[in-house]
Structure formats: C-alpha cells, structure tokens
C-alpha cells in the first residue's frame, strides 16, 4: 500500500544520501576513523595521521547499535574497532592500519633496519596501551594500586627508552 511505497522511497532517499556523503568524503580523500569517543587504540593512528599531515574525519560509536551495524554490514573483519576507511579500503587491526599509513606517507623507514627500529617503538606503544586499558574497568578499590604500578613501569621502563 501507500505506506510501503513511502517507506521504500524513504529508504532509497536515505541510500542516495549515504552514497553522496560517502562520495564527498572519498573525493575529499580524508580517511574516516571509526572508534569510540575516546583515545584508546585509535590514538596512535590519529598521531600518525597528524605526523603525516593528513586530515581525517571521525565517526564515533555512540551506542552498542552503532557497533552492531558495522558488524552486520560486514565491515569489521574481527567484529571490533578501530576501523579506518582509506583509499577505498576498510582497514582493521591497529598494526595493519599503522603499517599502511606509515608506508603510504613514507614514515616507515628507508630500509629494513629502520623499519625494525620503528616496529620496536610501535610495540612499546602497544605495551603501554595494554597496561592502561584495563584501568578503565578496574574495581575502584584496586584502582590506585594498579595506577601506581603502571605509572612506575611507564616512568622507569618506557619513557627512558623513548627519551633516549
């Protein structure tokens, strides 16, 4: 009936609008970052894009339904974010995203030895991230002690390596 047709037209219009938005972003050449409204695993990707001088856009996941939609649409290979749309590709997995961006913008060393050094620093950042992420869900009665341990490791183990 008429209601069904109206819904069909609305759906078509929405699809066209979505295509226009996608085309505009693609034409602008700006990567689209999909993540929660926080630093987390996307932060080093933001840093690398900034270091490369690349402008990007972000689409925050605001509710479980936003994440479910990305999963149902088949856009998240492992059903998790971060996800970056760049150069017509949908990239997931932080290291893969970082390697792609670094290689594309000539920030991944001049030879295999430089890349190995860059990889060591990158893995250190991932170690730091792995230490900090659990603090978000840490029970309040254990939080101070765990934060103290993490601060100690960061201050005495990681920051000196980066400063050197």
Automatic annotation (TrEMBL):
<dbReference type="InterPro" id="IPR036249">
    <property type="entry name" value="Thioredoxin-like_sf"/>
</dbReference>
<protein>
    <recommendedName>
        <fullName>glutathione transferase</fullName>
        <ecNumber>2.5.1.18</ecNumber>
    </recommendedName>
</protein>
<dbReference type="Pfam" id="PF02798">
    <property type="entry name" value="GST_N"/>
</dbReference>
<dbReference type="InterPro" id="IPR003080">
    <property type="entry name" value="GST_alpha"/>
</dbReference>
<feature type="domain" description="GST N-terminal">
    <location>
        <begin position="29"/>
        <end position="109"/>
    </location>
</feature>
<dbReference type="GO" id="GO:0004364">
    <property type="term" value="F:glutathione transferase activity"/>
</dbReference>
<dbReference type="GO" id="GO:0070062">
    <property type="term" value="C:extracellular exosome"/>
</dbReference>
<dbReference type="InterPro" id="IPR004045">
    <property type="entry name" value="Glutathione_S-Trfase_N"/>
</dbReference>
<dbReference type="GO" id="GO:0006749">
    <property type="term" value="P:glutathione metabolic process"/>
</dbReference>
<dbReference type="GO" id="GO:0006805">
    <property type="term" value="P:xenobiotic metabolic process"/>
</dbReference>
<dbReference type="GO" id="GO:0005829">
    <property type="term" value="C:cytosol"/>
</dbReference>
<keyword id="KW-0808">Transferase</keyword>
<dbReference type="InterPro" id="IPR036282">
    <property type="entry name" value="Glutathione-S-Trfase_C_sf"/>
</dbReference>
<dbReference type="InterPro" id="IPR040079">
    <property type="entry name" value="Glutathione_S-Trfase"/>
</dbReference>
<dbReference type="InterPro" id="IPR050213">
    <property type="entry name" value="GST_superfamily"/>
</dbReference>
